[in-house]
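Late entry, written up from scratch paper. The run itself happened at the end of the previous shift, but nothing got recorded in the book at the time, so transcribing now.
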Amino acid sequence: TASASNVKFTGSGVVTVASTTYYNLILDKSGATFGAAGDITCNNTLTITSGTLSMGANSLTVKGNLDNSGTLTQSGGTTTFGGGIGTTLQNSVNTLLNKSCDLLPVF
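Output as recorded:
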């Protein structure tokens, strides 16, 4: 389990994001597709600065904030936001199926 660390993915083409638990996950490369290798949990902030996070049929759990200036897509699985009061979902939450929110978001 990740604790108080930043993991940043950059690259070109298709970049595989490991199926694990992150504290802060940062995705930043214009034109890149970040493909989830499996279920992903982010315990603090998920930042998509540029590029596309493609979850496919995998599940995504964001326990803190989502700052999305790129694209987030999912074709199955579940996306869960569960940060509680004060959690923010910045910018667009693109194509998501089976959303679950256990929070009071500020848009």
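DSSP finds no helices and ten strands in the chain.
(Scratch paper discarded after transcription.)
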